[in-house]
Specification:
4 strands; 3 helices; 57% helix; two-stranded antiparallel sheet; alpha+beta; 88 residues
Length: 88
């Protein structure tokens, strides 16, 4: 594959997903979560339920996530995907 085509393929792939490693969650035995827009929507729903129920943590993708941390993760991911959509 020519170098230019390879770069374009990487740009397209980056727009469709972002990987968050287990180490960022303070865990080492689980594989990273690759966020797609669909998984991001699922995280928003789980977070909204946790906030509505006033819970400290909630389950997502087989992990326990702190509600306070999820707030910042969602902010980061929303901004990440918004930036990816704006790139040419």
């Amino acid at each position: 594959m020519p170098q230019k085509a390879r770069r374009e393929a990487k740009k397209i792939a980056a727009k469709e997903r972002v990987s968050i490693s287990a180490a960022e969650f303070g865990m080492t035995s689980q594989p990273p979560i690759e966020f797609t827009p669909e998984k991001l929507a699922d995280l928003h729903k789980a977070y909204d339920r946790a906030v509505a129920n006033n819970t400290v943590d909630f389950g997502f993708q087989g992990r326990t996530m702190l509600t306070a941390y999820a707030k910042y993760l969602l902010e980061y991911l929303d901004n990440y995907f918004a930036r990816q959509e704006k790139k040419p």
